[in-house]
Design goal:
Strand content: 15-25%
CATH topology: Rossmann fold
Number of domains: 1
Order of helices and strands: EHEHEHEHEHHEHHHE
Number of strands: 7
Radius of gyration: 17 Å
Helix content: 40-55%
Structural class: alpha/beta
Shape: globular
Distance between the termini: 32 Å
């Protein structure tokens, strides 16, 4: 298939986990993908190219404007103006379940800086490239925890709620520039980071029981929504947040 043939996409936090799945899915649909992470993305790039896709890797910090400028320059030099941005980089699997009264100011600020300000900074870095291209799709990644609250994760939940709010504001500012801004809110997704987490295993069975679709969620379950939002199929859709959680939270 080639729904995204020739389009240039940047995916942050794509060296592993859900971000890796996003990057591979975009490449499989014909996009030229920039795989970005603070960790080495070369394995993902090699796997994409071995499968016949087109990708380059870039180590970049979403909280550093200079690093992001270099990311955009590398993307444009290799492929041309950016049309698709997936703001996926975030702190989650690294966090321990911590009651509100025990969350330090430093940890709160760190989570908000990466998860929310990183989304802002990456958007600011990429939008000028989209303007040169006269179109763009920004796909922010929130979390289903925003809708029901996640005990022990107040910092994470708050940061992901802010991503939804940012999505709504950004859609208003960029809509007349032909840049659509939408958001995906995944449910608890079983990745290597979740499977190896010292706390999160206790949430898996209860989460499955509260879903309409009673099974573990895989990162591949997010691909359909990602491709819809990245493609021309969603050209008249902006400012929206889509829950992909197996029916855990019904709006």
């Amino acid at each position: 298939m080639s729904r995204l043939d020739g389009k240039v996409a940047v995916v942050t936090g794509a060296a592993q986990g859900i971000g890796e799945t996003y990057a591979k899915a975009l490449a499989a649909e014909g996009a030229k993908v920039v795989v970005s992470d603070i960790a080495d993305p070369s394995r993902v790039v090699d796997e994409i190219t071995s499968a016949g896709g087109t990708a380059i890797g870039r180590i970049a910090d979403v909280t550093d404007d200079g690093s992001l400028a270099e990311l955009v320059e590398a993307a444009e030099s290799a492929f041309g103006p950016i049309e698709i941005l997936v703001n996926n980089a975030a702190l989650f699997a690294e966090l321990r379940l911590t009651p509100i009264m025990q969350i330090s100011n430093e940890e709160w600020d760190r989570v908000m800086t990466v998860n929310m300000r990183g989304t802002l900074q990456t958007t600011k870095a990429v939008v000028p490239s989209m303007l040169r291209n006269e179109r763009g799709k920004i796909i922010n990644i929130s979390s289903g925890t925003f809708y029901y609250g996640g005990p022990g994760l107040a910092h994470y939940v708050s940061s992901k709620g802010a991503v939804i709010a940012f999505t709504r504001s950004a859609s208003r500012e960029f809509g007349d520039k032909n840049i659509m801004v939408n958001c995906i809110a995944p449910g608890l997704t079983v990745t290597e980071g979740v499977e190896n987490h010292p706390d999160l295993h206790v949430a898996r069975a209860p989460t499955v029981q509260t879903r309409a679709i009673k099974r573990d969620m895989k990162s591949e379950d997010l691909v359909g929504m990602l491709l819809y939002l990245a493609s021309e199929d969603s050209d008249f859709v902006t400012g929206q947040t889509f829950n992909v959680d197996g029916g855990k939270y019904n709006q």
